[in-house]
Each structure stands twice: as C-alpha cells, then as structure tokens.
Amino acid sequence: MRLLVVGGSGFLGGEVCRRGAAAGWSVVGTCHCGRVAVPGVGTRRLDVTDRDAVRRLVAEVRPDVVVGTAYRADDWTVTADGAAHVAYAAAEVGARLVHLSSDALHGGRPEPYGDDEPPSPIHVYGAAETAG
C-alpha cells in the first residue's frame, strides 16, 4: 500500500504517517516547510494552494490512498481550495481519498452531531472546512 499524507508534518497528519509506517506501508508525508519527523516516512514539500504542484506530486507519488489533513485556520485558500486541489489530484490517479475535518463544521451544542447532519459553521474557519 502506498500512502500520501497531505499535511504529514502536522499533529494529525504525523499520527497518520506513524500508523501507516507501522503497518508496513510505503508512506510519503507532505509539509509546507520543514519536514515530516516520522522515521521511515518520506517528506515532500507541498503548497496545497498551487493546484499544478499538487497534481504533479500526486502523479509522481502514485499513491493508492491520499489522506488530506492540511489546513490553516486563518486561510481559506489552504483549508478549502487546497482540499479541492488534493481531491482533484487523487481522482486523476484513481487514488482513494480520505479527507479529514474538524468539528468546526458545526456551530456547537452539547449533543453529538450525526454523520448525516448538514454543516452549520458559525465562523470563517468552519465555513472553509465545510467548503473543503
């Protein structure tokens, strides 16, 4: 299994990389700057706002699965447009896409939200997550 983790240098992405590597998969994690600090995981720099760069990287890595964890709370182009670029590139190579989002999709209440409930964001970050 070949796994590409977009946002692999982040907290969640790093954990996905660790688990993929522990399962014996070939794992490549992306970062905007720096590196993915997980033994056995390849690191590639990627700006998810650059659609062509995303397409080139995904075409080069040829993953079976792409896990999208990249976000920037104050940047619509990273959180929403970047997610769209990753989804498009994954579809182009026939990779399965797993897009992860936070609970910012919803406005907040004490009871858990169902998987089928429509998003109800109350701030820009939540709206960007919804768009992604």
Overview of the structural elements:
The chain contains four helices and five strands; from the N terminus they run βαββαβαβα. With 132 residues, it is an alpha/beta fold. Strands 3-2-1-4-5 form a five-stranded parallel sheet, with helices on both faces. The longest helix has 18 residues, at 76-93. The chain is globular, with a radius of gyration of 15 Å. The mean pLDDT is 89.
List the helices and strands and how they pair.
Elements: E1 2-6, H1 11-22, E2 26-31, E3 42-45, H2 51-61, E4 65-68, H3 76-93, E5 96-99, H4 124-131
Parallel strand pairs: 1-2, 1-4, 2-3, 4-5
Helix pairs in contact: 2-3, 3-4
| General form | globular
H and E string: EHEEHEHEH
State the major sheet.
Answer: 5 strands, parallel
Unreliable stretches covering 5 or more consecutive residues: none
Mean pLDDT: 89
Count every helix, treating DSSP H or I runs of 4 or more residues as helices. Answer: 4
Radius of gyration: 15 Å
Helix content: 25-40%
| Structural class by sheet pairing and helices | alpha/beta
- Order of strands across the main sheet: 3-2-1-4-5
Assembly of the depicted chains? single chain
Number of strands: 5
Q: Report the span from N to C terminus.
A: 25 Å
Proportion of residues in extended strands: 15-25%
Keywords:
alpha/beta, five-stranded parallel beta sheet
